[in-house]
Amino acid sequence: MATSRTKFIGTVCAIGAAVCYGTNPLGALNLYAEGMNTPSVLFYRFGLAWVIVAAVMGVKALRGSEGLRLDRREFRTLSALGVLFILSSLTLYLSFHLMPAGVASTILFTYPVMTAAIMATFFRERVTLGTVGAIVLSLLGVLLLYWGDGDGSTLHLGGVVLVLVSALTYALYIVVVDKSPLHMSSFKINFYVLFYCAAGMALFALLSGQPLQLPPTPRAWLWVGWLAVVPAIMALVMMVYAAKYLGSTPTAILGALEPTTAVVIGVLVFGEPFTGRLLLGIVLILAAVTIVVLGKGRRAA
Description:
Blueprint: H1 4-21, H2 24-33, H3 38-63, H4 72-95, H5 101-108, H6 111-122, H7 129-146, H8 157-179, H9 186-208, H10 218-245, H11 248-254, H12 257-270, H13 276-300
Helix pairs in contact: 1-10, 1-11, 1-12, 2-10, 2-12, 3-9, 3-10, 4-8, 4-9, 5-8, 5-12, 6-7, 6-8, 6-13, 7-13, 11-13
């Protein structure tokens, strides 16, 4: 039974994980300013994160607690997860070129609503009035974000489409993890997923004619390290403890701090615009996600 101390630790970890995830724009936009292209940013982010996870897995293998072998079904599942995570990350980071990163991160947070819709459509999960209301609220929120502040200007349509694709592929990633018979630690899953992502970014760079660029300055290497450690490794570790000590429902609700962090960084650090209509759009999306998460929590109780 959870004590007040473990709940406190879980709460701190949930807040920390959400804030860490929300710092993606901080590293990405600074590396773009250093002249690095998108596949290079993601290649070094995933590559360095993979090295760190590989070191952890090496220690576990030496201790005999977990090996790296896979059967065919696990290989197919992890391959699918790798492709989905590549698509989700690439489309999100490409969208940062076309629209404010804080707004992009907020639209990305529609993925819990998309997950609920996928589960209801393909796995016959019961559709509740709350789920329908959440879908409507999230759509209204995206529309408000798209139309800006009512002066006739809109967000870049291509950027919005990229973020929605990112949210959809991440929702599919969650569904595959949930429905697949993977019996392994999150470190082992991420060992293979991060490897796929680094290799996928190298392939994308080759096919798109955007050669991989070494980080040009020590400052750029610092931001690469930031992306690999803070929104990847640290967030992953803290999320595990949050789910263990606090529970999945409150952890998911506190996940609303992720887009909030991205918006604050965008406005304060990069001078991105923030208007009343954008604020309302953000509130509608966060409300939709909260409805979905609370509904799942009540059904699980």
